[in-house]
Design brief:
9 helices, 363 residues
Length: 363
Amino acid sequence: MHKDQGKTGGVKGYFPKSHLHVLGCTTLLCFSFGYIWYVSSGTSSKVSDTTSNTQDFHKIKRPSNHILEDLLQIELPRMIYTKPQILKPSRSDVLMMTPWFAPIVWEGTYNSEILNEEFRQRNVTVGLTVFAIKKYVVFLKTFLETAETYFMVGHRVNYYIFTDRPEEVPKVALKEGRNVVVLQVQNYPRWQEISMRRMEMLSYFSQQRFVNEVSYLVCVDVDMKFNDQVGVEILSDLFGTLHPGFYAAERRSFTYERRPASQAYVPRDEGDFYYAGGFFGGTVMEVYKLTKQCHEAIMVDKANGIEAIWQEESHLNKYFVYHKPTKILSPEYLWDDNLGRPEILKKRRFLAVRKNHAAIRNK
């Protein structure tokens, strides 16, 4: 990467000729429109007024020389980076585009400076949702502290923390424009039930609150820590993350729900990838549609005495089979070091925290 790649800045000085041509044309157009307005507005006037109106037109002040000089010394925004090479793809070792033209985000496939500038211009606020139910509240401190270091740096963020123990939410120093919002919810006896109820809570609050406060939602697990930059490169209308255990697997190996009686059922000859339930998101409206449909399917299964093999993750995968995500995140964005460190994994951005599941669940 060139040393100036991605840097932003400004340059002060006179315009080159090409810019003078643009400025000259713009000035000429402005005077032309002014003259056309004058002529059209005067067509209904008496003929005897034409001479006086013409004299008034000639009295219009032209821009003085010092104004033009000021215009020629405008601060120009610049974006300096290495030109993309059509015949030299940035990565040749991984798939970077799906058959439905959704990009797959890997290290080396995007320029964060370009994307940061684009999203700053759009003035977005990102909502990050986590569920810290029962003893899972112990993961919040590490989660929030690492998020402040690596998540959406330089952008506004609302941390939405769903918990049954609001008094145990830790106080963490936050940067300007970043807020913790505690949303109290009930717990359930079984961790599987807690997991499935996430879709219900997300759909409800997306409609009632999030839509008025943030532009995008990022929905993740709390028993994780940020380990590297996770920024606006992930944002899209609807995104999912490749499961770290199945990103290289064949379709027949995916652990989709295979029982036709379940609403999460996916036939063996369907499906593109296996997505992780611990990292998905999109615009508030798209997340609302996803979580609402998944919750309704979960409730139908519950009424029929069925529980999908991987609870809400199974329903999420069913949704993505028939509602293709517009962007897919590589396993960099959800990794477990117990799986090793394959060569294609240039970054480990969001990591599972070591824990004793038996000591945490149902406690």
